[in-house]
Amino acid sequence: MGLPMSSNLQRKGFDLNVFDLDAGRMDQLAALGARKAASIADAARGADVVVTMLPATPHVEAVVLGADGVLANIDAGAVLMDMSTIDANGTDRVARACAERGIAFTDCPVGRLVLHAERGESLFMVGADDPTFDRVKPLLDAMGTAIHRCGAPGMGSRMKVINNFLLLTVAEVCAEAIALGTKLGLDIETMRDVTGATTAQNGQLHTLMVNKVLKGDVTPGFTIDLAFKDMSLAMTAAAEQRIGLPVGAAAHAVFGGARATDFATKDYSALLDFACERAGIAPPRLKA
Amino acid sequence: MGLPMSSNLQRKGFDLNVFDLDAGRMDQLAALGARKAASIADAARGADVVVTMLPATPHVEAVVLGADGVLANIDAGAVLMDMSTIDANGTDRVARACAERGIAFTDCPVGRLVLHAERGESLFMVGADDPTFDRVKPLLDAMGTAIHRCGAPGMGSRMKVINNFLLLTVAEVCAEAIALGTKLGLDIETMRDVTGATTAQNGQLHTLMVNKVLKGDVTPGFTIDLAFKDMSLAMTAAAEQRIGLPVGAAAHAVFGGARATDFATKDYSALLDFACERAGIAPPRLKA
Amino acid sequence: MGLPMSSNLQRKGFDLNVFDLDAGRMDQLAALGARKAASIADAARGADVVVTMLPATPHVEAVVLGADGVLANIDAGAVLMDMSTIDANGTDRVARACAERGIAFTDCPVGRLVLHAERGESLFMVGADDPTFDRVKPLLDAMGTAIHRCGAPGMGSRMKVINNFLLLTVAEVCAEAIALGTKLGLDIETMRDVTGATTAQNGQLHTLMVNKVLKGDVTPGFTIDLAFKDMSLAMTAAAEQRIGLPVGAAAHAVFGGARATDFATKDYSALLDFACERAGIAPPRLKA
Amino acid sequence: MGLPMSSNLQRKGFDLNVFDLDAGRMDQLAALGARKAASIADAARGADVVVTMLPATPHVEAVVLGADGVLANIDAGAVLMDMSTIDANGTDRVARACAERGIAFTDCPVGRLVLHAERGESLFMVGADDPTFDRVKPLLDAMGTAIHRCGAPGMGSRMKVINNFLLLTVAEVCAEAIALGTKLGLDIETMRDVTGATTAQNGQLHTLMVNKVLKGDVTPGFTIDLAFKDMSLAMTAAAEQRIGLPVGAAAHAVFGGARATDFATKDYSALLDFACERAGIAPPRLKA
């Protein structure tokens, strides 16, 4: 997702200095006019805003806090904006390290899909104080259309955990409802239309599934394996917060069970197929 | 819900012959021009279409199959349309009894709220063959705006079970997500807005809860007690169909636990308050 | 189970008048000296104690309350002892019908296996008042070694529901623990021995499973299908009592899922194999 | 638990060199003849076997792997025996560090209670190769009566996770069964006796609960908070192993919910009281 986001920034007039372990991606950005940095340190030095977009918590901590990492090289007056989806405790550790060195920090995880990022229509969940937000807002405007301020640094990451817990658990609920309905003899078109016209309507069934698994497409937009990790972030947060999530726990266990199978690497909308498999029925597909 | 529905029928030119144990309701319909029947038998005799709208399966079976009930009195060429929300096996028994006597039958449970019924904007889930559907369609058009054909007789009841299972389980998922987010320090407005702009969007949080519990209104539109009964219909159907619903079962248990408390008679959107109570936090409310 | 129980009664000097739809079973008892009755009515008339042992609630209600059933033919001073495992509400209905006619009633479901019944070593859970208990005690002594008084009529059935809920849910817990341990590389012998020597010890793993599934024997002593029905009795009782059973609900869903597969007709100790199948591992077996 | 264990060692002729942050405990052992070490390094140097017994994974890693810790000071031919209950991945890291330096290592977590440790009746779950096991066996014999070899280093920790997952989940099952039975009107004595005489029998109800919560004693032998952490070890192991534990997940969520309340610091047998509180009933107690 970093490539379309930075492409938008470069195209809209920001002067990028990019670094990635994948040289091909750097070349694509260089073709748009970006400068290729030689290292993390080289990319960080001299920047007004350093943007990190990395797979998981350990990567962010290594890149930011590591020996010759961002914090060791960033300019005194610069802002660090982490857009990765990571554990909020990791975000807090990075935020504290920035605060200790007087570096402004904001966490801005991204809430929509790659296709939105390509169109510059991403959604951002921003944890930042006001002055830092004002400094990164032009970049966010260049990459997305929905900017949600969620509170102080760290609250962007927390909002992302809640958002994904909600949508992933709803996905499994839809899978169970449709599997039962299919076994009761209802057509998928009927179930889609009726539930779409009541308060049963939801983005997982009526936006995600109708465009993915219900068309027979389970190529991974977001794998069950990654979804399990996001569910785990929520369950860990619940444990830390001393709050029981009985339905969330049941859904987490289903994702956990799906990971024991070939479903691990499929799109998480394939939860429907997993439910149908366990029920011994053919999964429903929308008529073309 | 029977009163606003029959009021619409009478107002739009249908000639009603009504019977209800509550004389007051019959008077209201008589004021609109309906004839007050003296008994179930009197209401059934001579009608083109007999409409039943009753609380639960035993009422429907008693009224339709009872000694001096509908089937004992209905005209040979008439249609029986049951609009109650009942167990699909009950619907099947009624349908079979009608078939044995050559009476056309359709099940048409209603999928929206009283306020929609008042405006003639109800949604119907129709189990019927084509000729029977054609005969009742003018009545449905007079009462609602969304007519969904779900298959043969009995499939309307099945669709209703799935629809309510889906929306009720999603409601509990929303309750857990918001309780956790609140404990993590997120504002309810932020959670509403962010989840509303991603595929986490759903009718329970963004239509129901924002208008009920999140405004502090838990007066019952649909009580947790009734919601539990609908969840039980789904769990029973799952048992009959030999399909495990792990997340549904967890949600059913939560509704079951809520019924042990004062929450039993509150609106089911109060699942949020129940989750917050268990978590030891004040439930969030939207700012006015 | 009725055959070994009545065989013990006949052998130990009670004078039986037996009726069964299966003539072969009546012949076996006749060979021991029992009289073969021509009908339910014939079996009931003139008896001091009428014992019923039937598969499920509807059979008991039909045999006892039916037109030419037990209650229509039983002597005024006789006792009805129902030893079937049925829904406690069914027991209550039978008990009320007896009370209305002045017939003494007791429910005595059986808590061990066929092999115990054969040896006259059954366990009984008795719901009865004192005089009725005194009258049936000699029969219970002839059939079993453990007699537990559980309270008034109906409490025997309730105790049976709790007992089976507890043991069936523990069985699934054992299945999950062993499946996880197996995946972690632990030997089944090690797991059996260690857990058997701590408070993790339990009759499902250390008595049932070591003698059934862990020896590769999943021939049905008690099928998953029947186990599901017993779990359903508990979940229904929980619903009536307004009590949420989150772990029970999860276990009920697992039994429900197992019923969708070939496991339906296997011994319920095969829950272990079901858990291993879902985990993608070979189920452990004890070395001979 | 370290104090009674080392007291037994010293009393039975082993020559201890002890270190603890709590000077009082060292004094108690010195009174039995042990030498008080000045530091971890001082305790490790010159020993044949170094025994660690610490609260959690980070403590073990700090004490063993830290700058002036055990590995930096242990003799070349010595054995490190860790008896702490920790995450198996932590055990593996310590085992690897030992292997790299040629130090023999064994993990031997303890499976019974403080009262057993005091009597020298502990149970051990040993992960070790044969030569290492032979060297520590005399110490284990001095401290306990049940020694279970579980496999290579690391398997002791894994066995402990399984053992505690099993007993803790069974405890919650018992809590639900007894809460439901109580609400159905059954006496606790009846439930204890009947379930104790069938395969529903288990160490949680029939050994733990009858001696703790059912006597009104919920002073912590093992708190719900600690129990939650052990459940979390199992759930994390399940996640790593890609195995879904639906009933375990539900139980984990119950422990998680109990931690949000005053129950956090009570003995985990108080799960029964937690279940009864949610059900709105007084928890049962055995008659004196």
Q: How would you summarize this macromolecular structure in one to three sentences?
A:
Chains A, B, C, D: This is 4-hydroxybutyrate dehydrogenase / sulfolactaldehyde 3-reductase. The first copy, chain A, has 288 residues and is mainly alpha-helical.
Describe this structure in words.
The structure is a homotetramer. Chain A has about 290 residues and is mostly helical. The first copy, chain A, has two domains: about 1-155, NAD(P)-binding Rossmann-like Domain (Rossmann fold, 3-Layer(aba) Sandwich), CATH 3.40.50; about 160-280, N-(1-d-carboxylethyl)-l-norvaline Dehydrogenase, domain 2, CATH 1.10.1040. The first copy, chain A, is built from 14 helices and seven strands. Chain A has helices spanning about 1-10, 25-30, 40-45, 55-65, 70-75, 90-100, 115-120, 130-145, 155-185, 190-195, 205-210, 225-240, 245-260, 270-280, and strands at about 15-20, 35, 50, 80, 105, 120-125, 145-150. In chain A, the strands form three sheets. A three-stranded parallel beta sheet of chain A has the order 3-4-5, sandwiched between helices. A two-stranded parallel ribbon of chain A has the order 1-2. A two-stranded parallel sheet of chain A has the order 6-7. In chain A, helix 9 (about 155-185) packs across helix 12 (about 225-240). Chain A is elongated and about 65 Å long. Chains in contact: A-B, A-C, A-D, B-C, B-D, C-D. At the A-B interface, strand 7, helix 9, helix 10, helix 11 and helix 12 of A face strand 7, helix 9, helix 10, helix 11 and helix 12 of B.
